Amino acid sequence: MKLGIVKFAACTFALALGGCTADTSKEALPVFSLAWSEYPSWSVFGVAHEKNLIDGAAGKLGPVEEKWGVDIELKELDYDTCLTMYGSSTCDAVCITNIDALNPALGRKSVAILPTSTSVGADACIVAGIENVEQLRNHKVYGLSKSVSEYCFVRNLEKLGEKESDHQFTNRDPGAAAQALQTKTDDVQAIMVWNPFVLQTLRTRKDTKVLFDSSTIPGEIIDMVVVAQQSLEKPGGEAFAKAIIDTFYQLNALLADPATGEATLVALGAKFSHLGAEDMRQVVQQTRFYKNPDEALALLKGTGLKQIMKLVLDFCTSHQIVPSAPTIGYGSGADAQLRFDPTWIEAVKNKS
After folding, report:
1. pLDDT per position as a tens digit, 284-296
2. Cys-Cys with 65: which of 61, 83, 174, 277 at CB 3.0–4.6 Å?
3. Is 3.20.20.30 the CATH number for 25-118+222-351?
4. 97 bridge partner residues
5. Which superfamily does CATH assign the domain made up of 123-216 to?
């Protein structure tokens, strides 16, 4: 205690003479928070912390944070809590789907800065003793209502020429629905769930099969990072967006490198339901990453995104998922409640 006082006094005296400098660079960096939950392309951020690309604790920096001059605070939570935090403005950014991003955008202007992945089979209708979609009409299909699951279910019915009104989508937690089918619970012969429940159910109960899945609607279910417009406008806000994007692509580079790919995939699996490398290889095929800037820019700057978001918006309004339709814009100049903007991906790509 006394030694600390002596050191402080000595440094204070030295500063007056110009002979002692205090390192305040880390303290001066702006801090921004990202709320993320367990999902393949979002667990990237937790693994990036473990691999020391970033340090997810406030006040500590990894090399990516030092590069962009910003301090990233990671908040690992369950998905619903992430959505609540973002909606209540208690975090700057959130890992979220394009479907779920609509509601918070009504009260908080939001910018989708980074698509991380898209579902290509990761969401599936699994059945037992049901041969076709016509037979499915006679059974309740259990899954989480007003969610990606119901969206994928309805879109597949449309593609199969079926009427939604002829089917019985019934609300149930996906984990409980999967457990019920796996254990042959009476009256549960069809579920609509996502990974890891898809993987676990097919493996546990051999007489089940996939009737249809999200591979029929590629690109429509988009996992992404959304940042509040107000946070982007703060000092360091744009640097935060670039650091998040840079982190994502650096971790994807580790996945693609033969020398580090297996270990990185295992680390992702540990974050995502404790799956091993073999399971994760299947998971990342069904949850296709936008693994580099070019893939992300093709989505954000392509004509298909507007058509996708019209489908999503129509579904969410017709199913009362949103009380009203938020305005949606594309590019840096758009004035909208939810904007898809490639600006910061382009900046990261050009700098690297």
Report:
1. 999 999 999 999 9
2. 61
3. no
4. 223
5. Periplasmic binding protein-like II (3.40.190.10)
